[in-house]
Design brief:
mainly alpha; two-stranded antiparallel sheet; disordered C terminus; 62% helix; 4 strands; two-stranded antiparallel ribbon
């Protein structure tokens, strides 16, 4: 595949051409129209925009990019792209799962590319559902107070701090059914998931932020 870069949309001045080889597994994911459309967008990160699909084609991890996109939304009270972010996290989680999966060349091994897009969509649906639930189950004041400590826990890659902080907040929630849904997600996708727990945790944090509506979260933090 060739990536062709122009100076602008209206002014088609060629800047550069780059050839990139795409593994079959990656190609099988972006052949899906819904997934490709979702990540074929530029996300504000810092003082620039990053083309999400281009980063995926270059086989770069997507989690750090979404974490920085979230930080950008918090710092500047900017737009947080839910659809692109959740699909990126779902893809990132799926790729991490494949890295640690079995290496036996059986029928299941060769069928992985065919199942990749389906599993990415399953992760996406689960992430966006739980993100919606946590936004509904906690009042706005509680959500605002959680954003800083949870974001800090993710930056420090501290899984226990993330889970303990959230479980403590959920004790105040009134809807027991929704709390059970979140608790199951925490134990299954975060505590018992050494491969990609941070992707599923970040999805919860996006749900708490609610699309980037909270610029300041009452504490000092850093993107580094």
């Amino acid at each position: 595949m060739y990536l062709i870069q122009y100076r602008g949309i209206k002014q088609q001045d060629l800047i550069g051409v780059e050839y990139i080889g795409i593994p079959k597994f990656h190609a099988s994911i972006i052949l899906d129209d819904s997934i490709r459309d979702a990540i074929n967008t530029s996300l504000p990160v810092g003082d620039s925009n990053v083309w999400l699909l281009g980063e995926f084609i270059k086989q770069k991890p997507l989690y750090p990019l979404i974490l920085r996109h979230l930080w950008n939304a918090l710092r500047k009270n900017g737009f947080l792209n839910w659809r692109a972010s959740f699909y990126a996290l779902a893809i990132d989680s799926k790729l991490k799962k494949e890295v640690t999966s079995r290496a036996i060349f059986d029928q299941a091994f060769f069928g992985r590319p065919k199942r990749a897009a389906v599993e990415v969509k399953d992760f996406y649906k689960e992430m966006i559902y739980v993100a919606t639930v946590i936004k509904e189950v906690l009042p706005e004041t509680s959500r605002k107070g959680l954003i800083h400590p949870l974001f800090s826990a993710l930056r420090r890659y501290n899984r226990n701090a993330f889970v303990n902080t959230l479980l403590k907040a959920l004790l105040q929630a009134k809807s027991k059914d929704k709390v059970t849904t979140i608790n199951n997600y925490l134990f299954r996708r975060i505590l018992n998931n050494d491969e990609s727990w941070e992707d599923f945790a970040l999805a919860l944090l996006i749900g708490l932020i609610g699309g980037g509506s909270y610029a300041g979260f009452g504490g000092e933090s850093s993107e580094d």
